[in-house]
Amino acid sequence: MNATIADLSTMNRPVVSREQWVAERKALLAREKELTRLSDQIARERRALPWVRIDKDYVFDAPEGRRKLADLFDGRRQLLVQHFMLAPGWEQGCKSCSYMADHNDAANVHLAQRDVTLLAISRAPLAEIERFRRRMGWKFRWVSSFGSDFNHDFHVSFAEQEAQGQVYYNYDMQPFESDELPGISVFYRDDAGQVFHTQGPRRARWAHGVGAPP
Question: At residue 6, does pLDDT exceed 60?
Fold first, then answer.
């Protein structure tokens, strides 16, 4: 007789007393607290990283017209960029990027209260971005870096010749996977209007400490 789903769920699984389960769960809880403390320490070290001044004059296509990087802050000091994998000619965006983007509209409400503007940047032309954004029902701001060096300078888009070997991604040389890869970058604008790169890009996941004072 074939095993049922219920049978498979307990197959080779130890069954213990409540007292033994609590003892093992408390041991795991201690390890989880260690992980939390380490994560908090790494977040502090990440916020303490030095900055790089952005001297290049990047310009993006937005629904309201051409905008420089400093304009994308919308009057706030911090800019959180999702490097969304959507290249020119793609019918749809990356599934993992889309899963993250499904949460952007809700996150924006809270980030805006913490002096952070969240938006997505892709290399696809604006018309292709807008078509996909409407299809997905998203409201967050999404601009196009088409025709600029932004994606290449931040190592999330790669030229055809790089496909023959390795690419610089996530701070190391790696085998070529795709001409587009995901990431998160954080920027800061001071009172003089200067823009600094403070964190990222790195693989797309929420950065600990985003929204905290620099």
Answer: no
